[in-house]
Amino acid sequence: MRAAGLIFRYILLLWVVSRTTAALADNIAESIHCKGGSIYFAAHPADILFYQTPDFYHDLYVFKCTTVVLFTSSGVGGYGTPLDSIEQGFENAVASMAGKPIDGTAWDQTNMTMRTRSIVSRSLKDLPNVQIIYLRLPGGMPDGQAYPGNKGGTLSQLYTQQVQNTTSSDNNNIYTLFFLNELLSSIMSERQANDICVLDYRAALPEPNETGCEHADHSVSARLVLEAMRYGRYRANIRGYAGNIMHEFNPSFQEGTVDYAAKAEALFHYAAFDEHMCNTREQCLSNASERPTNSTAHGDDPDFVAEWLVREYYVH
Ligand SMILES: *[C@@H]1O[C@H](CO)[C@@H](O)[C@H](O)[C@H]1NC(C)=O
Ligand SMILES: *[C@@H]1O[C@H](CO)[C@@H](O)[C@H](O)[C@H]1NC(C)=O
Ligand SMILES: *[C@@H]1O[C@H](CO)[C@@H](O)[C@H](O)[C@H]1NC(C)=O
Ligand SMILES: *[C@@H]1O[C@H](CO)[C@@H](O)[C@H](O)[C@H]1NC(C)=O
Ligand SMILES: *[C@@H]1O[C@H](CO)[C@@H](O)[C@H](O)[C@H]1NC(C)=O
C-alpha cells in the first residue's frame, strides 16, 4: 500500500510539474504558421521598405511563407516617435503590399513565449503566412551608442558586450546576448525557411562617433542572424541587402514600374506614422536636393529616401 501511495504521489508530482511548465512552455513551434519561403531580418521596421523591397513585395505577391523579424521598433531619426506608431505604420505598409485593409483591422496578435519571455507577433488574418515578430530591442544612434533619452543599453552595446543585458522598449523582457542567440536560432530551426534575408553583414561596425558609416543596428542585426545560424547549425540561402551605401549606385529600377509603385505606396503608408520621414515623393526629393553636398548617409536619414526608393542591392 505504502509503495502504491508513493507511486501515486510521484505521478501526482509529475503531473503538477508538467502542468506548471506547460503554462510557461516555449511555444515557438506552435506560433509559426508555415515553413519554407523566406525570413526577412531587419534592424528597424523601415529597413524592410528602404532596402529589402521590392523583393519582400514579390514574396507577398506569390503568397510565399514570409516572416519579418524586427530587432528594434525604432523609427527614422531613431528617437521620439512611439513604438506603437512605428509598428502601426509598418503594418499598414505591409497590408498595402498584400492588398489588405490598411486601418489596422487586418492583423491578429499571438505572442511567442520562450524562457518566460513573451514576444509580440502579428499576422494577417486572411494570410497567416505573413507574420511579423517584434523583438523590440532598444535601437541606438548610427554609431551604436545610446541616445541621450535611452534607458539602459542598446542592441549594439549588447552585441559588443558593453552591457550584460538590456530591457526591451516595451519593458516586458530582459535580453541577454545568449538568450537572443537562442531565440533567433529557435525561430530559424522551427521556421525552416529556404531564404534568410539580412542587412549588410559585411559592413564594418562603426567606431564611436563615426559618421557616414552603415548604421550599427543594421550590421549588428545581420551578424547576430549569421551567428545564430552557426550556433543552431542551420543551413539556408543567405541574402544580404545593401543599406545606406546604395544611394551611391545607379537606380536599379525606374519610376513608373509596378515595383516602384508598390515600394512608394508602402513607404508613404509607413511615413504617415513616423514624424521624421518625408511624406511624399516630392518632399523626399526636396529633402535630397537640400542636403549639404558633404552630407553622409545614415540609416535614419530622410535626406536619402528619394534615392533608396529606386534602388535595391545585394551584398556579395
Ligand atoms: C501579448 O503581449 C502583449 C505585450 O506584452 C500583451 O499586452 C498582450 O496582452 C499579449 N497578448 C496575448 C494574446 O497574450
Ligand atoms: C543585468 O546586468 C546587470 C549588470 O549590468 C546585472 O546586475 C543584472 O543581474 C543582470 N540581470 C539579468 C536579469 O541578467
Ligand atoms: C564622442 O562624442 C561625444 C560627444 O561629443 C564625446 O563626449 C566623446 O568623447 C566622443 N568619443 C570619442 C571616442 O571620440
Ligand atoms: C524635409 O522636407 C520637409 C518639407 O519639405 C521639411 O519640413 C523637413 O525639415 C525636411 N527634413 C530634412 C531632414 O531636411
Ligand atoms: C559639411 O560642410 C559644412 C560647411 O562647410 C560644415 O559646417 C559641416 O561640418 C560639414 N559636415 C560634415 C559631415 O563634414
UniProtKB/TrEMBL annotation:
It comes from the Eukaryota. Residues 1-22 form the signal peptide. This is Uncharacterized protein. Keywords: Signal.
